[in-house]
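During the no-cost extension, the postdoctoral fellow (Dr. R.K.) reprocessed legacy sequence entries with the updated structure-token encoder. One reprocessed record is reproduced below for audit purposes.
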Amino acid sequence: MKKVLALLVVSSTVVLVGCGGGGDTVVPPVVVAPPAPPALAAYVGTWQPACENRARQRLVVALKSDGSGALEMSTYDESFGTPDCSGPVQFTETMSEKITATPDGAGNIQVKLTADGPASDIRIDKVVSSLPAHTVQFTGPAVTTVQLQAGPHWRIFVGGGNYMDILKNDLKKAESGKGGFYLRGNELFTVMEKDGAYVLDMHYVKQ
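Re-encoded structure tokens follow.
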């Protein structure tokens, strides 16, 4: 009973103070701090590496809509008819499923950010990446469909009268692995865990 009485006394005191002076009481607005952004939000966007062997990859990164803080990633491997990747895209390879990168904390690692450079001490956002079982699709002016004995195939012309045939609906196995992201200005470095250490996977620039 004493706790209840004490609460009533405090409440009455607050009311009396609020009513004193005969003037209007200005109640300051309640400021609610916005929630902190997800740890991986900085990596959202479209990223692209340098051209290599007439090809380059576009990486599109978005936050998953389930509020988990995980990322969804789509890759577009684009091949060109010129060594510097100028001109129109000849064919694009995409996957039927997206890659999910789940937050796995952060940590300091040593890794070579360039193939011929020294190892750098960096702090990465660690992730566990997973890709469900999936098929690949090819689109573009260099792609047709042909019916072979094993079934329908993508026929992709690669220049000089040469082509390659890839079985349609060929289900690739699910994949998973550990890695991380490192941001330096508008550059994104992805690393992967291999034999107990981290090695550079890809180097992108934000588009």
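Residues 28 and 157 are 70 Å apart (CA to CA). The two ends are 67 Å apart (CA to CA). The remaining legacy entries will be reprocessed before the final report is submitted.
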